[in-house]
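Reopening this one. Same input as before:
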Amino acid sequence: MSNRIVGVLAMDYGTPRNLDQVEEYYTHIRRGRKPEPELLQDLIDRYQAIGGVSPLNKITDDQIEGLGRILNGNGDGVTYRMYSGKKHIAPFVEDAVRQMVEDGIREAVGFVFAPHYSTMSIAKYIEAAEKGVEQYGGPRIHYVRQWHLQPLYLDAMERRLRDALSHFSEAERPGVKVLFTAHSLPERILKMNDPYPDQIRESAAAIAQRAGHSNWGTAWQSAGRTPEPWLGPDILDVLRELAEQGTDNVVICPFGFVADHLEVLYDIDIEAQALAKEVGIKLVRTAMLNADEDFLRALATVVRQHAAKE
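Same output, byte for byte:
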C-alpha cells in the first residue's frame, strides 16, 4: 500500500456570503477600483432577486467534499487532501497554497470548476496558484487546464439535456432550439488565438451529438460592463432573433458553468426567462451539475489522471 499524499487544489470564482460583502467582492473583481454606486446597487439587486445570497459557496463546499470522498474511496492507496481556493473572496487561491505548505503537502493537482480553458480565465487561476507556490516554497502542482471533452462530463451533460428536452412533446422536439451558453470574455481574445471559443463549440457539438439533437447553436452570456466589446452574440439577442424567425421552443444549456449561481439563477432564470415570455418562447433550462455524483466522478477521473503524472 502506498502512503502517498496528494493535495487537490479546487479553485473557483467565489461569491459574497452576504450582501455586506458585495462591495468588497466587486472591488476585488475590479482590481481595487470601487464600483460606481449604480453598478453596486444593480449587483445587490440581482442577489436580492435570487434570495439575497448565491448558493455557490455552499454548492462548491459540497462539490469539494463529494470529490474528496470519491477520490479517497478508490482504494488505490493514495490519500487526497482537499483545499479550496477562490479568485475574488477568501479563502483566496494563494491562501489555499499556503495551507498546503503548512500541512506538508509536496505534490498537488490543481483544477478550476470550469471546463473550458482561456488565458483570461483558467490561466489566471494558475498564475495565482504559482504566485503562492513561489511565495511559500511549494508544493509542486500539476494543473488541469481543460476538461471540456472528458467523457463522463459529456455524459452528465447529455443526461441533463435529454431531461430538458423531455419537457416538450416528441412532435415538438426536432424544432426545439438548444442554445449552449458560456460566460462571455472580451473580444480581444480572438486576436490572441485563445482556445476558449473553439472549446465551447467542441463540447457543444459533442453533447448535442450524444443526445442525437441536431438543432443547436451557441451563445454568450453575462458579459462584463466594460467599454471594450465582448464575445457575442448575447443570449438575449439570440432569443429575440429566434422569436422573429418563428421559433417557439428553446432549451438553454449553460454548460460553461457547473453550479447554480448568479449567472444562472438571475441571467437565465429571471432575465432570459422574462424576455422569452415577452416574445412568446417556451424556455427550459438544463439542470446544473452542482454536487451530483455523475459530475464528481468525471472530475475525480481528471484529478487521478493528473496525479498519475508525478
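So the earlier flakiness isn't reproducible anymore. For the record, The first strand starts at residue 5 and ends at 12.
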